[in-house]
Design goal:
Helices cover about 25% and strands about 25% of the residues. It has a nine-stranded mixed β-sheet with strand order 6-5-7-8-4-9-10-11-12. The structure holds thymidine-5'-diphosphate and magnesium ion. Thymidine-5'-diphosphate (TYD) binds next to helix 3 and helix 4.
Length: about 450
């Protein structure tokens, strides 16, 4: 069977195909498909399956599910926000990917983490492929970390790095960034999909074999010229994304995959002039800029992983001067907003046609929980009717397409957090078990129409 040796790979998600196209079938991104130079396809060919049939494999040992093994020992960095996202500390011989936009603070976070782990006794090496050692040292000075026993290297040649790691035998190596690493066995430019994949593969297998943990830093790229961190997500044990808005000082470290812990935890940091400071009470910070309740503003009692987080949702609804009304969302899902607008229109008879709708999650936070539905609906209605919600109220609950309200998980946690921050009432779906939190009055409703009638006096 004649097989073309030219393959094309998406630099965003790593999907490969044998022809070029403008849009990737895998992830839907535009202009991310690049040609892989001289890389043969790695799938099984007719030839290899024939030779597999001829040779008998060695026997593979089978085991039972029952285990006597203790859970992996963990090293804590002492940075509580980081340890929680890792699932309680660093697991030996694990591979971690930290992705994020350029300039968001990944190098800052990892230098602080390197110092913290080194101080707690792990031999740590920080390899910078982007900055000279002098630059990293200057940052360390600014962050007041110069006394931490971290060893630095400024290098991009993978072979040299692996030789150095083999000699030094650290327990933790930080590679900043995976896109600058290059291996001379791969015939393409640094940052290309095949280089990034090969470097990540070599580093993770080295780590597993040598009982070393490795952290790979990956820049999220929009233009497709260099490969994004998604192409290595499947190779590592833990994937963390460092998020935030440029104009805001809040940064959120979010676990999206974790073989050794929960995958929905977040750690909250604040970028200051002296590095990242931990935010142990994010709700207080997210609500700190909030004044008296005004139309369009609603406090959502959310949960991120094991931790309740209160955030303010802001909506603006105004007559549209355009033939097609605008729908703009920051920090939430645009598709979900369209759904809520459709439910409000068809189940409650409240049209948004001809109205521009803007929705913003304050503080640069991103929300993905379905329980935000009711808070979004409340913000939209409050903005449209120009009526503020009752003072001291938080809102949460999922909305189904029928307009019914579904109970949200961890109701008690949400209520307790709201009470702690001085809120006195909650609007939530009925159903589920009854929960009493002292100082909080719970106003439960079973569908959106009841909510509209009760809170806004309309139907
Ligand atoms: P950096 O860690 O270099 O980002 P990344 O590695 O993700 O590209 O952080 C860059 C930004 O952080 C830069 O704009 C300056 C800012 N910063 C501070 O505000 N305070 C600090 O103490 C440091 C070190 C950086
Ligand atoms: Mg950096």
């Amino acid at each position: 069977m004649a097989k073309s040796t030219t393959t094309f790979t998406c630099s965003a998600c790593g999907a490969s195909s044998n022809k070029w196209s403008g849009r990737c079938d895998g992830c839907g991104d535009w202009n991310t498909i690049l040609q892989d130079a001289g890389l043969s396809t790695s799938g099984p060919t007719g030839k290899t399956s024939k030779s597999l049939g001829a040779r008998r494999g060695a026997s593979v040992e089978l085991t039972d599910l029952a285990t006597e093994e203790a859970p992996p020992p963990r090293t804590k960095s002492g940075l509580e926000e980081l340890d929680r996202v890792l699932g309680g500390g660093l697991v030996p011989a694990s591979a971690i990917l930290v992705g994020g936009d350029p300039g968001i603070g990944k190098s800052t976070l990892l230098l602080q983490a390197a110092a913290a782990f080194a101080r707690s006794g792990l031999k740590t090496i920080y390899v910078s492929g982007e900055e000279a050692s002098a630059q990293v040292r200057m940052r360390a000075q600014r962050l007041d970390l110069v006394d931490a026993p971290v060893k630095l290297a400024a290098e991009t040649n993978l072979r040299d790095i692996l030789t150095m790691l083999e000699k030094e035998k650290p327990k933790l190596a930080i590679i900043d960034s995976i896109q600058t690493m290059w291996s001379d066995t791969v015939d393409s430019a640094p940052g290309s999909v095949s280089q990034v994949r090969s470097a990540a593969h070599e580093l993770t297998t080295f780590a597993k074999r040598n009982d070393m943990s490795v952290v790979l830093v990956g820049h999220v790229t929009k233009d497709g010229q260099i490969a994004g961190p998604r192409v290595v997500e499947h190779m590592v044990d833990t994937v963390l994304y460092f998020e935030g808005e440029r104009g805001h000082q809040f940064r959120i470290l979010r676990a999206v995959k974790n073989r050794f812990g929960p995958s929905d935890e977040i750690g909250v940091f604040e970028m200051t002039g002296r590095g990242l400071a931990q935010v142990t009470n994010p709700s207080a910070l997210f609500l700190s800029e909030r004044g008296t309740p005004s139309p369009g503003s609603v406090v959502f009692a959310g949960v991120e992983g094991t931790r309740p987080v209160l955030v303010e949702l802001q909506a603006l609804v105004a007559p549209s001067p355009h033939s097609q009304a605008r729908r703009t969302v920051v920090g939430w899902d645009g598709g979900r907003l369209a759904m809520i607008l459709a439910v409000l229109e068809s189940r409650c008879g409240i049209p948004f046609a001809g109205l521009d709708v803007y929705l913003n999650v304050a503080g640069g936070m991103k929300i993905s929980e379905p329980a935000a539905d009711l808070a979004v609906a409340a913000a939209l209605l409050s903005a449209r009717e120009d009526v503020a919600l009752p003072e001291g109220a938080v809102v949460f609950g999922e909305i189904s397409l029928s307009g019914a309200l579904r109970p949200a998980p961890q109701t008690e946690n949400r209520l307790k957090e709201a009470q702690k921050l001085g809120f006195t009432s909650a609007i939530a779906p009925s159903g589920g078990k009854t929960i009493d939190v002292v100082g909080m009055s719970l106003n439960q409703m079973s569908d959106l129409t009841a909510f509209v009638g009760e809170v806004f006096g309309a139907g």
